[in-house]
Amino acid sequence: ASAPAAPYLEKLNEAQRAAVEHGVGEGASPGGPLLVIAGAGSGKTNTLAHRVAHLLVKGADPRRVLLLTFSRRAAEDMTRRATRIAAQALGTRADLAQALTWTGTFHGVGARLLREYAETIGLSPAFTINDREDCADLMNVVRHELGLSAKERRFPVKGTCLAIYSRVVNTGAKLPDVLDQAFPWCREWEQDLRALFAAYVAAKQAQNVLDYDDLLLYWARMAAEPSIAADLSQRFDHVLVDEYQDTNRLQSAILLSMKPDGRGLTVVGDDAQSIYSFRGATVRNILDFPAHFAPAAARVTLERNYRSTDAILAASNAVIGLASERFTKYLWTDKTSAQRPRLVSVAGEVEQARYVVEAVLQAREAGMKLKSQAVLFRAAHHSAALELELARRNIPFVKFGGLRFLDSIHVKDVLAVLRWAQNPRDRVAGFRVLQLMPGVGPSTAGRVLDAVAASGTLAASVGAYAPPARAADDWPAFAALMEKVGASLTPWPAEFEQVRRWYEPHLERNHEDALTRHADILQMESLAATFPTRERFLTELTLDPPDATSHESGVPLLDEDYLILSTIHSAKGQEWRNVFVLNGVDGCIPSDLGTGSQEEIEEERRLLYVAMTRAKEDLHIVVPQRFYVHNQNALGDRHVWASRTRFIPEALSTLFDVQAWPPVASVSPPTEAGLAAAAKARIDIAAQLKAMWD
Ligand code: ATP
Ligand code: MG
């Protein structure tokens, strides 16, 4: 009879345990390749953590285990879990976590390996890594040197250039194909882009810098280099990868060159959750794994979902069931709940924010920490109205996958113009605004501010100032704007639009992601329109947003409790008791920023599936009836009557608790007295509304 299994194995179901134990003998020498492909919440990540622990328990050398995850946070989390389980089973106090150091993202691990092998591949080990912002700056410098200025020649902005470059590098596709498929409007620039990319690569080499894509590219090249390949493939006994469905061609090439026969390789993922193809990820990696390693590859599927209630699971399954590809994974749960996922219709984005805050606070009243609740959205700027509402109610939050709305440069810029107009003596705002002008630095700005202080008015002082030569072209328009806003010549909120129009060229000049920032400002414009005056708007907006670590007055808060705001992309792999999905409307999910190809639509459907499957107990999909659409086409930006996302068609309604918020009172047949009362009520409401604005 065999000895009883370790307690950590007892907690797993049969399939999970098979995956954990696959090919692991005493000494934990590497076994055959293993694929775990299973639906959301079935314990893939948990299983992977247990497998790492099991390897350690069976004697694997932690320094020779490589664990690759989608984010650094996920890597840290898994390392902690795996080493805790192993240490407990071994009854050892040895710090396994210190030895299990090869954990992280592909990029992070790549950077470490490249530094080690730098000299063999002709890099100086002192290379630095450019983040996206740095890359965009470098791309910009190179572009100017080639005379490909965005302004004069309508050449694509630096962010677009970088996105095209990155896609070519990550997919290995040819430039013309990438342009045709994803950037059709840049087609005419093919030759210039070619020259630009060559110069960009040369500049990086000359400066000894690598960008994120290079980390993978160099790693893949290095792994294919015969003199290094052997060394690299010997280096790790076990390589384990989570979220394999979102890896790209380079990442799979790296894995295959490190583990050519697949021995010691474990990959885990869910094809129904592939959401990064826009960055070059390909679901083929996971789908082709068994064939690539046939007949050696083992495949485990997990069918029991441990995360969500049956009601949430049923709705999520129905949504993904309408996908054009067939995902054949079956999921069941024994967590029952009478509460179906809610499909909540609200008037607009402001009401959406209020609904979420009300529901979050209600759940907290019922004992659910803010931390176990999350609000998810398609694009980082979709949370703008909510962030404002949270700031106003003094509810702390952290945001993943994008900058906080009120902290972003462009939002602060626009607010500074309005603040300076409101209060010409506000030197901080004035400083910020003046330095938006080309050639204006702190000293010039200081002189203008002195003049404003002396005269007391913005209009005259700015207009009369003789600007530095570089600002000469832009100054008249600037002075005209300041005159109008300074003297409040344009009524609110039209004034906001005026400021935005003035600010837009600055955005295009200074930011690679001008389009997203533009969308933010439009968001703010629609919020602005809900306030009666500029002053009220500024007062509400500039209330200090509380940060996650300080507790001020207002709502009593548990220690370090905060609400999670996250893009859906950044929420991958995580779970919360209560989940809100914002903007469940067409134009948002699916987003209308793509080209609208069938593949893109399908990816958006999977995105909604990922969002819904984050919820453990309660799920709210909020559907604003009116939605601000920011369009690059001829229709321009506008409020539109939104319709519920096409991914939840009428036929699925019974799986949801469909409701309106605020709830409408039930209507009984009108009586004469009732009609009179209603007429009176209408007048009363109108009077109340009026009183609100007076
Ligand atoms: P996703 O596809 O979203 O990444 P996943 O398949 O990786 O999900 P996990 O995050 O590993 O799923 O697990 C989901 C939840 O189920 C977690 O809370 C986990 O602790 C729990 N869980 C997993 N396996 C078991 C088990 N055998 N017994 C009890 N709970 C489990
Ligand atoms: Mg997972």
From TrEMBL:
Gene Ontology process terms (BP): recombinational repair
A GO cellular component entry from the record: cytosol
SUPFAM superfamilies, sorted: P-loop containing nucleoside triphosphate hydrolases
UvrD-like helicase ATP-binding domain boundaries: 17-309
Class of enzymatic activity (EC top level): isomerase
PROSITE patterns listed in its UniProt record: UVRD_HELICASE_ATP_BIND, UVRD_HELICASE_CTER
Boundaries of every UvrD-like helicase C-terminal domain copy: 310-573
Residues bound to ATP: A38, G39, A40, G41, S42, G43, K44, T45
Keywords annotated in UniProt: ATP-binding, Helicase, Hydrolase, Isomerase, Nucleotide-binding
CDD domains linked: DEXQc_UvrD
GO MF annotations, alphabetized: 3'-5' DNA helicase activity; ATP binding; ATP hydrolysis activity; DNA binding
Entry's EC annotation: 5.6.2.4
Pfam families: UvrD-helicase, UvrD_C
Domain of life where this protein originates: Bacteria
Reactions mediated catalytically: ATP + H2O = ADP + phosphate + H(+); Couples ATP hydrolysis with the unwinding of duplex DNA by translocating in the 3'-5' direction
Family: Belongs to the helicase family. UvrD subfamily.
Protein name: DNA 3'-5' helicase
Originating organism: Trinickia dabaoshanensis
